[in-house]
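Suppose a colleague, Dr. K., hands you the sequence of a protein chain of 158 amino acids and asks what its three-dimensional shape might be. Before reaching for any lab equipment, you can write down a predicted structure in token form. Begin with the sequence itself:
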Amino acid sequence: MSAAMVPTVRIQREDFDVAAEIAALTQGRADIGAVVSFSGLCRDEQGTLSALELEHYPGMAEAEIARIATEAAQRWPLQGLTAIHRHGKIAPGENIVLVVAASAHRQAAFEAANFLMDYLKSRAPFWKKEHRADGSDGGWVEAREADAKAAQRWKPSE
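The predicted structure, expressed as tokens, is then:
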């Protein structure tokens, strides 16, 4: 990790602009050769979902995501890393999460973005509640085993 590179981590209610976030990370930088971004959107689950409500513990969630973003910056030679996660009620089609990794070379950017997203999907301290289009309560969403399994590939070998 370069001494000056500090990951940007934000948890916010308001939407974000993907292009503006990439531009902010890369503006005036001639040392960046690759930018990999992932933006996650709320699905409508075949028309059954009216909104997904995300809750978190303020302070704790930011600290945990900053910890894993710093780990990514230590594992790969990155010039920049941004992670933004929304909370509150999010309608289908709206942004939920953004990860942008910048590096001199594509492989590091791809791997760092994958690593951070696997963590966000499997271990970040967010709770999701479904609001159904028919007005019924969809309940809390359980963590998916596939997400936890995907994150296992990043554990250090023993």
